[in-house]
Batch of 4 targets.
Target 1
Amino acid sequence: MGICGRLTNLNQSASGRNRSALAEAFIHALYRVKEVEIIRAESHWRMDYQHIESHVLLVVTAGRGLLNWDGEKSKLWEERVHICRPGQVIGIQAGEGGLELTLVRFELFRSDEEAGGYSPFIWQEEQVVPVKPVPQFAITCEALGTHWQNESPYKSLQCEAAFLELMYITAQHIELETRLDSINALERTRRYIDAYYHTPITIDELARMAEISPKYYGDLFKKTYGIRVVDYLTAQRINRAKQLMVLSQSRLKDIAHIVGYQDEFYFSRKFKQEVGVSPSAYMKSRKRKIAVHHPHLTGHLLALHYLPYAAPLHPKWTGFYYEHYRRDIPVHLSAYRYSEDWQSNIDKIREVRPDVILSMDTLNPGEKEKLEQAGPVLYIPNQQLDWREQLKLVANYLEVSGEADSWLTKYDRRVQSLKDMLHERMGEDTFLIISLHKSGMYSCGTRSMGEVFYGDLAMKPSFSMDLCAVHTEIKPEQLIDINPDHILVNICQEPETLDNWRNLQTTPFWRDLKAVRHNRVHSIPSDPWREYSAMAHARILDETERLFLRE
């Protein structure tokens, strides 16, 4: 259902010479609502990364959270309205006190004289709109959600009125000159840090540039960017140092000076504190130019304290690696439909001239031939070896078998500790992991889910062992007989799957399941649960602890 409307007759409080360009943009657009979702989430709830196909309006009505968009982060709170654009990748995480959020998917249109009507366009103004918090936001958002869910014959008109009211309130309460001046000045100082991180920079100096007090500047920076000024400056310096270690032959002392540290030993301490390894260990791991051809192999390499020179990266498909390592990996290969983009990926690898290429053994003959022309290739058996054997194979090839043994020892120790705590807390509770894709429902959707959760952690399955096989399709009605104490559900973040998930939750047999009645349905993200690597499995342990021991 599409709902269209135009925002007009904005009153004097947000008009005239004081009205911002943002308010003007709100007024002259034509809107069509595609979907409304009211999210009431407890602490640390997460919405998995989604590749959005329409505009998304996010309005926080209570609590706080974090918005991840294209690898960047923004704080979610009641003083901001976020507008995300088609084509972006977004994910949401609730804060400590939970999060109440209205999410509206909508399209924008503007007058097109040549076409004699309206044509779609993409929002080009600021992504974050600062607003004055007013009670009407929560009231209007609640009304919009209620109208969207009801089956009244007047639903279309009611939703149209509520959405236009929401946009009206947003435009009317956009914070004007004083607030926007502070934000703009703050952004100028952030760009100054980006350009002059290598020079002595103080908060007093930055505050003078922003024409506000040092204390207010520090508080506003943390509130706006979610990080302290000093930590942001340190991150810029360390990131540049890592680039120099990879791309130059400079000595450690010289690199320290280049990025703004006069004391080499202080730089080394800060580097290890930020990165987790010493500068010398980091530089050693970068001497060998390694190209990773398959996304999952990045997780094996990182467990051995090696960083790839080239690897598939994408804010959704390899979100963890993109967020934490994109500045450390000089060459980014395609991770979005990488099996279809293999030719361009191999072309990039050839330009790198790597010492070794890591790939799975699942390539087609043409792809394999081209890859071997780009450099020496180590093929990792996909089905014949489990993840531990794969890790040891990579380590043996790189002549660091001791690193693999050490990592696995620590992993097994962590497994035993976590398993003891889980079994003490969960007792004889039974578990079912399901994956939803399109119209299909699958038990134990990946090897990782089965081997780590049911295998390493020995969590008790709620079904016969024949359903333990990876990617076994099950019918929704079978859930009645399985009836687990807990359900872990992994949902593909695309429209058809999301529609089917919403429909499933409305069925009587779903609502009558024990796990549903006791509020024990747990959403698990694709990253890391669908990745088969050492690093991903360590993160699955963290995810399991978060789900069941941090309540």
Note: The first helix runs from residue 21 to 27.
Target 2
Amino acid sequence: MARKPIPKPQHLFINRDESWLRFNLRVLEEAQDSTNPLLERLKFLAITASNLDEFVEIRVAGILQRIEEGYTPSPEEIDDALTEQERLELLADQLHSFVHMQYDCFTGQVLPALKAAKIRILKWSDLNETERSQAMHYYETEVDPLLTPVSIDPTHPFPRVLNKALCIAFLLRRKQTKARKSILGIVTVPRSLPRFVPMRCPAGEFHFLYLHELVQARAERMFPGYQIVARSAFRITRNSNLYLEEEEARSLLESVRAELHNRRKGDVVRLEIESGANEELIEQLRINFDLDRWQIFRVNAPVNLSRVADLYSQIARPDLKFPQFTGSLFKLDSKSPDIFAELRKHDVLLHHPFESYLTVEQFLQSAAEDERVITLKQTLYRTSSDSPMVHALVEAAEAKDITVVIELRARFDEASNIRWARSLEEAGVQVFHGIAGRKTHCKLALLVRRDEDGVMRRYAHLGTGNYNPVTARFYTDISLLTVNPEITAAVHAVFNYLTAEADAADYKPLLVAPQTLATELIRLIERETLNARAGKPGHIIAKMNALLDRKTIHALYAASQAGVKIDLIIRGMCSLRPGIHGLSENIQVRSIVGRFLEHSRIFWFANKGKSEVYCGSADWMPRNLYERCEAVFPVLDPELATRLRDQILEAYLRDNTKARLMQPDGLYLRAPRSGAPFSAQNFLMTGKDLPSKTLSKPATKATKKPVKKAAKTKSRS
């Protein structure tokens, strides 16, 4: 039978921006889902707003800039026949539709549910006299000293409005003149204050007043001599891309610091304003910020939904939140005096947050404190504001050789990383900023210890997530602790590359970007393809955040056509089209959005029954494969590799509660539910057995022996 024609090349890929918007829609669905605890729904809604902020200030800003510069994309970059302008117009419609859904969720679903739970968010007009008196006292003591009202006239130019700062615009008219012309007044609402002002209320209830409502209520006092014609809260989003010019006479730290200052002054990309705002007021703002009309987003209050997350911590209602969860602690064998002795017996694999990140913290802290440890090297991409690991590095610098490769250009963490870099340097740590033109995204730590037997050994931590104990509580990630000489020697070679640009001939068994990762990845996929063509089982399971690289997608298409079964677990963007006959019918793409942010990258290859599994810092995106310093590591311990395949990956493939399956057109549908509901994240939290079904098998006509029941693994808790 003749195969159906394969789609034309421009139809092989889904546009990354459309795919991203669909991911954010899946997050919004969690806010709309009444089976989730109410305050968790509020948090999901805030996440969609924060996600959208970054999308606008990076992706939309980038499109606008390309249009302004007359940029023409190369054939390899084109997803469809649309021009950049046509793409922008389509994206604008999608953005407005999404914002409409966000506010429908907030006003139509979440607010009524909050009210039913005796949680009220009040406007000024809702307050009685006693409540107004309380609010005014708060205004006089906490708010008014921080306000700087500005009226716009020839002697007072329009103020420099900060990126994403909540502001209030006033349309003013002088009382003592006959002039009919109105002018603008602007006041910035202090970011240091809570977005929602707590009010006194009956026991068991929670009442809050919008901060901007309180500021607006005192407009006459801020602008004496003016009639307040109209008022409205608004917020602008600026282009936040960094355009670094790295010069010989200028250090990277100085370049990033200078560009951070420029980011605050970037072109305005979006104006959010209350839907009932005065048209003249909107037009004056539009003209001042030089915006097209599609860049104005009228919202049904409050402006800036990302700040509704503040309510989560302000409301002490555990019954409206997910039950508290703390990952299990790794326990040393009774015969092991410390973590180093334990690692000499076997590797340790941790799956965060289901297994506590405290083990990684303690490993690094032990390295800093242990007198037998001579040197310690670590990469830092993002970390917490008060990182115990960084403090340990500072303390250890007095007695050990400490080297840190800190990435100054980690988006939106640049200022924090600059501060850390300075603190570390002042403490005597050798601080490097990686390779010029490439972000250091790998997650590696390496120490050298003279053990009790007199032998000098390397110990390493390799991970998929950042060295951030805060996000480790709600990001899923993999950590490997090992003393394996092949792996630790390769980690050492990676650090030499990062600090001296000393490129090794080989980094095996690691796959390192930009040197070997892309080619080795294609080789692993093609090996499964050749096996399937030879009638042998072919199967790939890959879990990651995003899949955009076209060379990799082409290799996956070829593998599918050869009969390789491909299970992709991709949280966010995916440009591959699954399920197209003659092209990708053997590929299934699923996305899981739940309580924890799926962040781990795990890649499993059947390899004719001698399966290989890798974890690492890199998604299958061009920036990760070709433009960043990344490290993907094999899990060589058979027991740990089996656990990754038969427990962790299998759980995600079984999920029929939080999983959505991607369709050929890029849309997502809930995974069909046959039998009892099963949530991967709940299973990984509770440790209960998987449903007794046959494990996923490769799509092949070749005869294959039954999959053996997963071997019991030693407790890692």
Note: The chain has three domains: 11-320, 339-502, 512-686.
Target 3
Amino acid sequence: MPALSTGSGNDTGLYELLVALPAQLQPHVDSQEDLTFLWDVFGEKSLHSLVKIHEKLHYYEKQNPVPILQGAAALADDLAEELQNKPLNSEIRELLKLLSKPNVKALLSVHDTVAQKNYDPVLPPMPDDIDNEEDSVKIIRLVKNREPLGATIKKDEQTGAIVVARIMRGGAADRSGLIHVGDELREVNGIPVEDKRPEEIIQILAQSQGAITFKIIPSIKEETPSKEGKMFIKALFDYDPNEDKAIPCKEAGLSFKKGDILQIMSQDDATWWQAKHEGDANPRAGLIPSKHFQERRLALRRPEILVQPLKVSSRKSSGFRRSFRLSRKDKKTNKSMYECKRSDQYDTADVPTYEEVTPYRRQTNEKYRLVVLVGPVGVGLNELKRKLLISDTQHYGVTVPHTTRPRRSQESDGVEYIFISKHLFETDVQNNKFIEYGEYKNNYYGTSIDSVRSVLAKNKVCLLDVQPHEDDFQEMIKSAQIMESQYGHLFDKTIVNDDLAVAFNELKTTFDKLETDTHWVPVSWLHS
């Protein structure tokens, strides 16, 4: 850390030092965001108040104060007893009422504790019925309010003992540091648990409030210290633990909605991860199904999704398996040799569960990213894109598609289309140079990766739209439903075009926020 100089000599207090700290660190901070964070932290009023209290206490500590007496509570009791024998006038009644108030008694008790410097906690007495052979037994008392204990238990299949299966990060058990995975539970509040099922013990814990006493035989296994998770994921499905029959403890589950950002706190269990909602001040984690477990479950429930032919990615610039520009009658003539090879790098998993994400904010000198607009024919996609283009032609741009059809007299190469031979088009398809492509009336059409890069090189936002051609309204509705059910998790924003002007304003606002606000993006973006 750089040396700090406040210019106030050695008499500078901690409060003044904290106030000057952000300015001292400013030359060493890389971004405005970090500097703003420092100002917010060191400008917090509660921190200032604590520091002032600290300085006051430090000052009085130097004076070495000595308490006048150490038994203020006893003296107050004696005074109250003596006043009871006096004629009761209004002043005596008021004083007796004051001395009987719980908060005054508590204040006097604290005074005596500080004066006597008796700060050690009062531990509960050891139970009388401890087996002498159980020399490794621990008696633990935890204070539990309305929050769950933050631990799950299970019955050991070999020994039949009740053992701690997992400790939830941030829960009461985790914060105490006294209970660990593998510990054998013998008693809860004096009730033996050897002959009880885990469900019965959970019920006892759920009904207990205040202090809970555990009799535990510690595990001989050494636990590896676990650091707080720094992995964030975006949920691609809704989850309610109360409806999940497989979860080991419904009370320990974490519910979430599609689109929620979750912070992964532990992946020690391959089946059940521990997570909490991003930004939640409550440190306690909850159970969620792991990615592998959820993918396996959803794949068994929805096998029909695995055979759908359409593949869409609204975020990547390669890997479409088929073009959305194909009409229904021409799909049957599209040859499989022209489909791009499937790539895990570009295709989303067939069963969407979670996507690892990270906060992202576009820097001033950073190139714009490709934006994909997706929708079936008839929803006004082309009109919305046209209005966006003409609103700022210097800021937005579109790609020039490739085609193998002959150039018409009024067309110019590189303006309406880039005209190439069928052989060259097929070669580029084989080399994965097209984002999307298809065949219509024996001619190929497609959008190349280079055409997207050409727009981005001009420091413009590249707009790309993909849409299927349909023969009737019912087919359009069916296409939209397939998009939503199979690929809705890939869409960053859904706009309903009931009113063109309203839809355009919503679209424009969304684009502006994408360029200025911090939002969550796939981790793979940072490496693409």
Note: The CA atoms of residues 2 and 124 lie 49 Å apart.
Target 4
Amino acid sequence: MPEERAIEELDMNTFPTNESKETLFALVSPKEELPRPSSPPKKTAWKICGSNYPLSIAFIVVNEFCERFSYYGMKAVLTLYFLYFLHWSEDTSTSVYHAFSSLCYFTPLLGAVMADSWLGKFRTILYLSLVYVLGHVIKSLGAVPVVGGHLMHTVLSMVGLFLIALGTGGIKPCVAAFGGDQFEEEHAKERSRFFSVFYLAINAGSLISVFVTPMLRGDVQCFGGDCYALAFGVPGMLMVLALVVFALGSKMYKKPPPEGNIVVEVSKCIWFAISNRLKNRSSEIPKREHWLDWAEEKYPKQLILEVKALTRVLFLYIPLPMFWALLDQQGSRWTLQATRMNGNMGFFVFQPDQIQVLNPLLVLIFIPMFDLGIYPLVKMCGINLTSIRKMATGMILASLAFAIAATVEIKINELSPHTPGGKEVYLRILNLADDEVKVSLKNYHNNSVFPEPIKPFQKTTDHSKMLLTTESQSFHFQLQYHNRSVTSEHMLEEKNRYSLVIRGDQSGVSSILVKGMATSTANGMAAVRFINTLDKDVNLTLSRDVSLSVGEDYGISDYKTLERGKYHHVQCRTEDKDFSLDLGLLDFGAAYVIAITNSSDQGLQAWKTEDISPNQMSIAWQLPQYIMITAAEVMFSVTGLEFSYAQAPLSMKSVLQAAWLLTVAIGNIIVLIVAQTSALVQWAEFILFSCLLLIVCLIFSIMGYFYIPIKPEDAYNLEDTMPSHIKENARNLVTKKTKL
């Protein structure tokens, strides 16, 4: 019956009193004496331990934990994957990282439209989770070295990231709302607690994944290097688990049908108002008070009023993307900064991409600290800390965080080994003879480059800088050993480091020129090469997947990169003997040259010298900038969400949520543009972002000063808060009954 269907569509909780409900039932009943229709029997809901919490929310919370683990775990190692697996530049890696992040915040619009207009929340989550899983599978395959070449890895990675962005963004606006749908209206208190648990699951998943995934990448070796396939595969398996858990609760869920998407309606209303205004700009139609009033020909007045309230808040959103441009660089620029720092904290050794764990950890600490401590204390001091002021303070804190990051970057550059410039080379002497050797240059303007004799096995990381007259130049080295003098000629090329290895035998000494590493190693790894002074080839096993062979009689190996760590028992083998070498600690960013020697009194041993010294700046110096940026996030993000929800009309909450996510997407696009167009060094880029946010903060503060907030008592009347299709059905029925 049409009358019964109309009654079922009505949300009875929108009426202010029971008397109003009874009045409507009396009006729509076909007979005055008939009792009000009874509600259909409710499906018995599974409860948790007899409480008012539906059992179905347990499946939703576990699903969210696994999904967030999947997303943040994959994202934690993404920049380093671009940099060291795909071998992209830092700027390209940063740009693609933020392009992916931006796409993840554009796709929620698609998910919201699908859920509200077509599939409903349950099927939207289910179908897009399948897309999500497929993206993880393809992304993991793209990290397996034996699957195709570089082009195939790039294509698989991009396709996988696109599907992941579609999946994670598409389900983002649905999961929390679907969880709220599981509660009865009279259980609002329990529903509020559910959202707290839901938020805890998000941060717990993020916290654990950002800590664990870098360990899977760095501590596990596969295919002869970092195991990116495992680092992407484990989050993929967690997403499979998230999908399975969510599907298992299918029969327990309440599944509200799609009811139409307000985002689409608002967009159409705004578009019609603009197009109608442009169409009539030269006509004699009287001007209207507000530009949205030009939509009155097609849309109801109440919708126009609500869109006006919405646009007032959206106007304040204009400066917000700049904040997200800074906040989201924790996973890109700040991670790249960490690769040039020393992760040894004494009690724990952090991988460069593992330090991101500070953000979710500090969020969990700061939210109760601000709500229960700082905000009440500020209020006691007589300071009215409004939402606008909190958000502006968050912007200032984020700006200070980037100023700190710039300071740390400058200090890292000061402590890092200098890279040879144009027409420059750095040269050092490694004396592997049994006595000291005096080295001089016969055809160089400064004959005292090496003023002191070089002692045998003298450990030094000092390189002497030499200036060339051309891009490459030949030099004659004179070696004085005992009472003999030997001259050897070597060609040096600009922008390189060299080691002149002096070897001794019964007939005297000779030299070998070896090109070294120009800069510190990538990704915080250690690099090592070997010189074999024995008369037999030596095979070394450095780790499960890293082995090499060094030729006899001063054979020199290429560099091999290893995880930072202690290597006390490196297995070695010659054609007639097995032995082990103690290499000691191979530290972050360092490059080592290790000579395998045979001493009559100590036997076979390793003599180690640093070609490039380890990273000097401790990763602990990133802690202040993480504290500052997290405090900024709590003051800006949490407050901004609360402010938006309070200021939006009841029917416009979802529109504001979509707009809020779009500001995050635009913020990532800003980083992408700066990374591709800016020619600034890193510390200067940090300063640029810091200054831009301060300017934006000033603009936002001025806009906020003139903003008049909506008061809680400014509520709409009953008819205005009801959905339009329900109002129309009720109005028709009331009219019909009145005529009767």
Note: The mean pLDDT is 80.
